[in-house]
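The data are quoted verbatim here:
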Amino acid sequence: RYKTMVTPRRAAVAIACCWIVSFLVGLTPMFGWNNLNKMRRTQEPNGSHTPFVIKCQFETVISMEYMVYFNFFVWVLPPLLLMLLIYLEVFNLIRKQLNKKVSSSASDPQKYYGKELKIAKSLALVLFLFALSWLPLHVLNCITLFCPSCQTPHILTSIAIFLTHGNSAMNPIVYAFRIKKFRTAFLQIWNQYLCCKSAKNGAAAAQAGE
């Protein structure tokens, strides 16, 4: 059923929807959910006629209500918990199928479900790395919002931000090491666009030398 349901067109539509939703969620502060009005209200009582200057820092510009209530509680935590439940169910189903096939001493189905289990473990590792990379920053945002008097060390914030950026580099590495099809595709890209170019340059240099 998978090949009939997940057609290239449906996959492209799903990917496009993910990107559109991501753009809308990420650009929400530019639509007005930010700290601009709050900073203007704090400057008006002072009666200062100096130009309105905004300190360009993330927590100064971006609203923590947006980061916690909208970004974390709506777009990060529920999908993360849903994916966790889905993977638990997938592992449970594969384990049941493996136990059935082992008891019936059927080698081919056991090999198939063993392969499916390996892929599921790889995707679960991606999910775990995502949670490990993004939850620290969201926890710090929750502390900033719900405990304004609490002071979080600057080094922790820097590490949390570094983890969120590093997560984007983790996935291709995990895919390449854990899933054979991804590894084969990466090697083909490497050989086609990098090694071939260097080989062509070497051949051209050899012909020029002749």
Observations:
- The chain has two domains: 1-62, 63-196.
- The first helix runs from residue 2 to 5.
